[in-house]
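Exam revision sheet. Question 4 asks you to relate a sequence to its structure. Input first:
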Amino acid sequence: MSLAGRACVITGASRGIGAAIARRFAAAGAAVGLTARSVPDLERLADELRAAGATVATATADIGKADEVDAMARSLGAALGPIAIVVNNAGIVLRKPTADITDGEWRQMMAVNVDGPFYVARAFARTLRATRGRLINVASIAGRQGTPLLAAYCTGKHGLVGLTRALAEEWRGEVAVNAICPGSVDTDMLRHGMPGASPAMTVDDVAATALFLAADAPAAMTGSCLDVFG
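Answer key, structure tokens:
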């Protein structure tokens, strides 16, 4: 599966699933735009990919702030040219009894897990439509079913599935919009959100699914939410 000649942007790219997707896309020949809040982790990954011969640009942004997302989109577009693939991967988790969740914690979860993907989709809408591109949202099994102590996370990921389906209809024939709904993946976030969980897959399993959606899935495949779990 080749992405040669295509420019992509991956949010939450500094580690975990985002970093694995960046490695897969770069190996497939894409010019890769990396964005996250952690500058040291982001630059380490950028150096690694450049050493392997990839074209890479970075831009830091808090995905929950519209002005920072817009600035990131302008920066990466200027560095890489028209962006044809965007992966909404950035996300956070909160494990807590619902009655104990504060207003601030709830808003932070929605800001990153719902507002952020919307801001990113809006910021790249014109270039994705012009390039007949692809938008890939990394949701979760929590966007398909409920889990105790993860009410805020489940709500956010259900919202991301809804955004995926709405954009797929709005941009039908122009942009393929799909979501990945992984089960338990071996990441720091899983260990924080679900202590004691036994991961069923690696970050590279999810990255392989993202590469399929970016490179090999038919353009008519849109509005799908791929359940990557048993």
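Marking note for examiners. The chain has one domain: 7-228.
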